[in-house]
Amino acid sequence: MSTIVLDPGHGGVDWGATRDNRKEKDDNLRLAQRVRDILRGWGQRVIMTRDSDVFVPLNDRSYISNVNNADLFVSLHRNASENPMANGVENWVQIGAPQSTKNKALGVLNYVIRAGVQSSRGLREGNFAVLRNTRAPAMLLENGFISNIADNQLFDANINAYADAIARGIMEAVGQPIPGTPIPPTPPTPNQDIRSIQSTLNARYGTGLAVDGIVGPATRRAMVIALQTELNRTYNSGLVVDGIWGPRTRAAVPIVRNGARGNIVWLIQAALTIAGYPTVADGVFGPNTEARVRQFQQARGLSADGVVGPNTFESLFRVP
What is the Cβ-side half-sphere exposure of residue 67, based on CA atoms within 13 angstroms? Predict the structure, then answer.
């Protein structure tokens, strides 16, 4: 049995983010209570920082975890943005967190993604008090944007699936066996950015993809075909264009950094978006693209230097 502290963000006079009459604090508590019930049903010791609509200071939340010698601390939140199109889930760990903590957080995030979301915004590092002051491995999961209508619809329709996914990710993180048969994941939601990428791959490289907004094996293979084609066109690499990432393709990739332009940059930006790090695909490697590259590299355990070399290319393009 493991001890897990669930922290429903905000509460009481602290509403968190809002949209119309919807309050983040309520969504956080609804989800946390479902996760709690699943984990307790699986024999785990679960402690809630709040189990009703009350205000709990940030330091008290960490204290609850520390005094109970928790094995894992999970803070549940909803995101918000002035941009109503901003969407997706992301999981945060403390800046400089150990790789083991990052792996746990990425595992929980991946379970949620498989349950069905608009997009993945990846694993991120921040300096939140509940992460900074908690001794146990800690994460802060942003479950979609309360400011985005589609994310709210997904949250309401999938709340039980999300709770199940979070619980399974937690069980894996604390090294406990996951009972029962997994709930089948919700079919992936089409994404307009992916549609745009698929259309461009078809127009530039004749890949013949179905423009359905869903990333599958065909889209991933088409990305490698496009990369191999560009390496041949730009660098006379003489590669066989077969959509298979291999030693010759890896050896042919250039070093791409801030200031670069062209189709190779567009492919990097498209691959970042497909990997869950949405990036404006304009073929210009500027500060925003560099920041996304660093985030991707951190999440994948690579040197986070913002430069796309063979290791980053391989992590972006190699089909799992």
Answer: 9
